[in-house]
Design brief:
Strand content: 35-45%
Helix content: under 10%
Protein name: Phage tail protein
CATH topology of the largest domain: Factor Xa Inhibitor
CATH class of the largest domain: Few Secondary Structures
Structural class: mainly beta
Organism: Cytobacillus depressus
Shape: elongated
Largest sheet: 8 strands, antiparallel
Number of helices: 1
Distance between the termini: 39 Å
Radius of gyration: 26 Å
Length: 278
């Protein structure tokens, strides 16, 4: 006997999202690949920035207010008129970086200062990606628990030193690049800094946001919020034993010269077609 309930479990979706953004410039992506490579390693296109891990989900909301309309001949309202729309996005950023704080807390310009380096040395042999052991010409100036800088052409890494045995340096985490004997290896006597300020600014900048999620069949979904800014809710951060989260609340606004039915946000969804291709 057939079931009266028609259910397609493939259409029941869930899972986390990847929230990215760019400065608002009046241009918007037409496809998901305009924002992110759709194959591993899923790198972002130029101009887009990743907000990283979130906590307790990414919530989007769409609502409107109405006003009742009455006529003399009827007791009570005969219709309603929409008087305003509200579109919001809310989450907690788990990656509490200077860049994320600049966005969420409406910070100023990030000013970076370079680290102070000691006397440099060189590698005695090439080292591979993910290496944690370096052999250098001289271990002088390096200290256990200190930091080491390695640069070669456009590649540059800073790593913490786990221990030292003569001219052999052991790192606490693997290198993200391979280096040759032409690389410069230096002890870092003082780490560099990033400085940012927060004040009573008058204008909150607009940004364009994209929220990307993967469905159970492997296809991708993306919501593009054309024009949004950080809203004024309390941005409380608690310094305690718990992980410190960064609240992010956004308000979205309609843009000019776009059809009214999609002037705030739009969705793009990949489809897995059963149709044969030519």
């Amino acid at each position: 006997m057939g079931d009266i309930y028609k259910v397609n479990s493939d259409r029941i979706v869930g899972g986390p999202g990847r929230l990215v953004f760019k400065p608002y410039d009046g241009t918007y992506p037409d496809t998901i690949s305009d924002v992110m490579d759709t194959a591993s390693p899923y790198s972002l296109e130029d101009g887009w920035q990743d907000l990283g891990a979130t906590n307790d989900g990414i919530a989007t909301s769409r609502s409107f207010d109405t006003e009742e309309f009455e006529v003399d001949q009827v007791v009570g309202a005969v219709d309603t008129d929409i008087t305003s729309w509200e579109h919001t996005l809310e989450t907690n950023l788990a990656e509490n970086t200077v860049e994320n704080r600049k966005l969420a807390l409406i910070g100023g310009t990030i000013i970076e200062s370079s680290p102070v380096l000691g006397t440099s040395t060189s590698l005695t042999g090439d080292i591979a990606l993910n290496a944690t052991i370096l052999k250098v010409a001289s271990g002088s100036g390096f200290a256990e628990g200190g930091f080491i800088g390695i640069t070669e052409e456009s590649k540059s890494e800073t790593k913490k030193i786990a221990r030292i045995n003569g001219n052999t340096i052991y790192l606490t985490s693997p290198l993200e690049n391979a280096f040759t004997t032409t690389a410069t290896v230096s002890p870092i006597t003082e780490l560099g800094y990033k400085r940012i300020g927060y004040g009573t600014v008058q204008d909150v900048p607009f940004h364009t946001f994209a929220l990307i999620s993967q469905k159970k069949d492997g296809s991708l979904y993306m919501c593009v919020i054309r024009k949004a800014k950080v809203s004024g809710e309390d941005k409380e951060q608690t310094y305690s034993k718990e992980k410190r989260l960064l609240p992010l609340q956004l308000s979205a606004f309609p843009v000019d010269n776009v059809a009214q039915e999609e002037n705030v946000y739009y969705e793009i969804e990949q489809i897995v077609s059963t149709t044969s291709f030519p």
